[in-house]
Amino acid sequence: MTDILIIGGGPAGLAAGLYAQRGGANTLLLEEMFAGGQIVKTHQVDNYPGFSNSPDGFTLGAALEEHARKFGLTVEYTSALSMDLTGETKTITTPEGELEAKAVILCMGANPRPLGIAREEEMVGRGLSYCATCDGAFYSGKTVAVIGGGDTAVSDAIYLARGCEKVYLIHRRDSLRAAESLAQAALAAPNIVPVWDSVVTEFLGGDAIIGLRVKNVKTEEESELALDGVFVAVGVLPRTELVRGQVALTPAGEILTNERMETNLSGVYAAGDIRNTPLRQVITACADGAIAAFQAIAYLS
Ligand code: NAP
Hints:
- The chain is α/β, with parallel strands linked by helices.
- 24% of the residues lie in helices and 27% in strands.
- It is elongated and about 60 Å long.
- The mean pLDDT is 97.
- The site of NADP nicotinamide-adenine-dinucleotide phosphate has 22 residues, from helix 5.
């Protein structure tokens, strides 16, 4: 039986793995895709202390994995299909079989939140994307829109503006939520055009997006924007589907932890974007992971 099983190989999970191994626990981490979690979609990480060279997220994720492996963390690339976390022994089912652990740290992160308008699912890959770093290159020299006003939307707009002719930044209010440095850079870019106080009501086009219908929420006026691509960046939804009904959640659907990353179940911890954190950053995810591993080791002993 594994001492500590970590689900998810983003910054929270990899930091937890590093601390758990260094703390002497036999630790296994499951990751379904790439090390790094959501940051692999980030073209530039500017605010992780000690990395003034602003690495891309893929490189930073690989470095976090290499560091944890150096101290003996085992990383298996597989999916958790279901979990039984209520007993003293925790059981995780994967396509390869069942794994047992004395303690579990949940680090499954979050997925992009959909906009919630008609035809959204069917337009994915037909001009609609949730990842500027992945799909931005398809729109070189073209006109796109980014929807949202947070760090993701604004940094995506800055990234896209390097290759696109024009980037509409469509936000439902008249000021950005993003960090001031990002907001200033976006508003100074000549080819980023803010569309304030506006929500998207419709994707225009048949097989592929050719524009957006946009409504000004103050004046109720509707207008159309002709464009080639749309990037939705309206926040994230914590990935709690596997633990719903076992682990207590907040009304917003995040795993409820205390400052020790403890959930309502003994031996079960949560770290990073999946929990009720006030700040979703690499640094806070790593810190959560370290605390969760420290507490899990204390629980084991
Ligand atoms: P976020 O901070 O939650 O911002 C979401 C944005 O989308 C807000 O501006 C929000 O508007 C808007 N929005 C939400 N629902 C909407 C809807 N249905 N229609 C239109 N607009 C909608 O999300 P995020 O930017 O993805 O960031 C998530 C977390 O990751 C944050 O904690 C962020 O700081 C962090 N992050 C950090 C960095 C970085 O530090 N470099 C980069 C990316 C993300 P309102 O403003 O009106 O609420």
